[in-house]
Amino acid sequence: VQLQASGGGLVQTGDSLTVSCATSEPTFSGYTVGWFRQAPGKEREFVAAIRWSGGNTRYADSVKGRFTISRDYGQNTVFLQMNSLKPEDTAIYYCAVGRPIISAITWPRMYTSWGQGTQVTVSS
Fold first, then answer.
1. First vs last Cα of the chain: how many Å apart?
2. What whole-number distance in Å separates Cα of residue 87 and Cα of residue 90?
């Protein structure tokens, strides 16, 4: 599955930004789509995930209440809307797909295909 992440940019603290993840496949059906991020010198960490069929979502505690993951069937695209951005949200954001069991939905190794990443920078 080929993925294309886009929408990153430079914003200020408190601003909003939406990043997108599109696929070249006909659909994300059967997959879970996850967003992860990696800041310089840090490990890749889970941000949010959505099951394409059913729409169940999961968020990291650090973004809960600020970020929203959603999907658009017509565009075969998953969005991550990020509000009230903080400097600590600065990272490269990656989307990924896989078929993780619910207890492993936050594990990067459960995702089999990854997009190229999009840079999000939040200035203070």
1. 36
2. 6
